[in-house]
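Page 42, continued from yesterday. The earlier attempt failed because a stray header line got pasted into the input along with the sequence. Redoing it now with the clean sequence only.
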Amino acid sequence: MADIFNLEQRDLKTVQRFYSQAPKKFRAVTGRVLNAFAFDTRKQAIKFVETEMMSRRKGFANRVLKVQTANFFSPIQSQASRVGSIKFPRFSGWIEQETGEQPQRRVATLLGRGGSKKRQISGPHRLRRGRKFKTPDEYKGRTSTQRAVVMMQHLSRTGYKKPFIIRGHRRMAPGLYKFRGRGKARGPSMLISFNPVQKRVRKNRWLTRSTQRMYKALNLRAVYKRAIWQTFKVRVS
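This time it went through. Structure tokens are written below.
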């Protein structure tokens, strides 16, 4: 004795439709898996930056670390999700820590940061667009060094307290300066160097290590099962 199982025409069409749509459906599965990898790597990177690197602004890592999600409509072989730091004029995206290169053209001194490396540069010392500082070009002299000397003599004599820029002086490095001290001890002190010594930075591969930590911490099987459920509403063991 045997049971006989027959598929009705409606069932056959359902199966046929499933298999015809499956390749496109699985694009969503792989896309969701890739996005899960990227978002969890971002989470690991935020934790890494805040605990193992010097971050002067609270929540800064959360603002600059972004994810570009995979496109579910793209073929599987061309899908990709990306995680990384955005870059803007006064922020390199921590590329120097990842690669060991030093792209900075300006470096704040300890004085410029108010005596602590962990502090941000104070407002009056920031080289913001549109902000004007005294420069040697505003003063007379045959050479750039003479113009810088004339400027500093004038500013010191008049009790000038704001930052000023020095460029072209034969014995002084270009940068943003400010007078400190009193009487004969009053002299210019550098706040920001415009031409710092370019040197290789000790690598602290925050993105690479965050990705490695993601693979160790993430339950990959659970990620795939969740992606299949979100796409097909089918639970797999």
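Notes: Residues 107-193 form one domain.
Reminder to self: strip header lines before submitting.
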